[in-house]
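Postdoc handover notes: sequence design on the structure in folder B. Input tokens:
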């Protein structure tokens, strides 16, 4: 790959997390020499969205860096772009944002306290937390806070799905 600008408007980081990239943002700012894994690649229609990127000269000088293996068409179904954006935002909140900061405790998602509580109290724990977050979102003063709370609700529902798929649908004891 030459050092050319690549248009961006997606959801999933297009390069390896360790790649060093240069960016141009929707608001016109240019950012150089940033680690790709430290950036928010989800397009949200905001001023700090990445609109174009390129591999920085320091990355090009190294061995080729590629994106981690993932389906290229994971979020590419025509007409489902808005759903893809919400799901990607929920994933990022859990893996890099509030969920990771408050709840991960260095554990993979399926071993975090939420999953342990589901084992203890049953899948109803996660579903109740999801419902509580959905209700609380309606009382928050800003759209950003409402959306953040609803993204947390989605993450709890994902935790319930993981538990169901693992056969953990009832409380122990």
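Designed sequence:
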């Amino acid at each position: 790959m030459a050092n050319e600008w690549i248009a961006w408007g997606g959801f999933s980081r297009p390069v390896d997390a360790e790649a060093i990239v240069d960016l141009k943002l929707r608001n016109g700012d240019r950012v150089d020499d940033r680690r790709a894994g430290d950036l928010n690649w989800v397009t949200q229609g905001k001023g700090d969205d990445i609109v174009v990127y390129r591999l920085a000269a320091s990355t090009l000088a190294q061995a080729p860096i590629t994106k981690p293996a993932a389906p290229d068409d994971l979020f590419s179904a025509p007409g489902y772009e808005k759903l893809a954006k919400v799901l990607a935002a929920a994933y990022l909140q859990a893996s890099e944002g509030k969920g990771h900061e408050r709840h991960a405790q260095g554990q993979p998602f399926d071993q975090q306290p939420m999953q342990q509580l589901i084992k203890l109290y049953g899948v109803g724990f996660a579903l109740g937390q999801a419902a509580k977050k959905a209700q609380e979102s309606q009382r928050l003063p800003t759209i950003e806070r409402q959306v953040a709370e609803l993204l947390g609700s989605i993450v709890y529902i994902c935790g319930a799905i993981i538990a169901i798929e693992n056969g953990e649908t009832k409380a122990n004891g």
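Context for whoever picks this up: DSSP finds six helices and four strands in the chain. Don't rerun without checking with the PI first.
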